[in-house]
């Protein structure tokens, strides 16, 4: 995929968690694969610095999401509305009639990796071949 733009390049770095219960909800038909993918994009693009007033929010347009996902903006809007109706996101009025997306239960989607991962030490035991 071609370089989308500098803002997306900057935002699409780092890590986030994906709660396993979302996949259970997918299996039970409570969320569709398209909705799960869209939710993942919103999570990836949200602001995760809890010092900011827009914590767990993104204001990316349906048009830009459609470009990222190779969908049309109407499909984005439909799935955004369904995610809102099913309680996964909140929709807030932003500036210039823009709708902002706030992730519900943000603590389940993002973690700060603060501890250095310890070096792996060999824990295998020597076994006799069978």
What does this structure look like?
It is built from five helices and three strands. It is α+β, with helices and mostly antiparallel strands and 130 residues long. Helix 4 packs across helix 5. The longest helix has 13 residues. The model has no long low-confidence stretch (mean pLDDT 81).
Q: Could you list some keywords that capture this structure?
A:
3 strands; 130 residues; 3-stranded antiparallel β-sheet; globular; Arc Repressor Mutant, subunit A; alpha+beta
Shape: globular
**Structural class of the secondary elements?**
alpha+beta
The radius of gyration is 19 Å
* CATH-derived topology of one domain: Arc Repressor Mutant, subunit A
CATH superfamily of one domain: Winged helix-like DNA-binding domain superfamily/Winged helix DNA-binding domain
Task: Summarize the helices and strands and which ones pair or pack.
Blueprint: H1 6-11, H2 20-27, H3 33-45, E1 57-58, H4 62-69, H5 73-85, E2 89-93, E3 99-103
Helix pairs in contact: 3-5, 4-5
Task: Write a brief caption for the model.
The chain has 5 helices and 3 strands. It is of the alpha+beta class.
């Amino acid at each position: 995929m071609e370089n989308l733009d500098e803002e997306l390049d900057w935002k699409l770095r780092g890590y986030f968690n994906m709660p396993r219960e979302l996949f259970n909800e997918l299996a039970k038909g409570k969320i569709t694969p398209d909705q799960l993918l869209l939710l993942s994009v919103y999570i990836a693009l949200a602001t995760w610095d809890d010092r900011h007033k827009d914590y767990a929010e993104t204001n990316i347009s349906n048009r830009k999401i459609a470009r990222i996902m190779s969908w049309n903006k109407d499909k984005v809007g439909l799935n955004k509305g369904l995610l809102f109706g099913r309680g996964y996101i909140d929709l807030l009025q932003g500036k210039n009639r823009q709708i902002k997306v706030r992730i519900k239960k943000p603590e389940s989607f993002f973690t700060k990796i603060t501890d250095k991962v310890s070096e792996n030490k060999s824990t295998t035991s020597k076994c006799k071949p069978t």
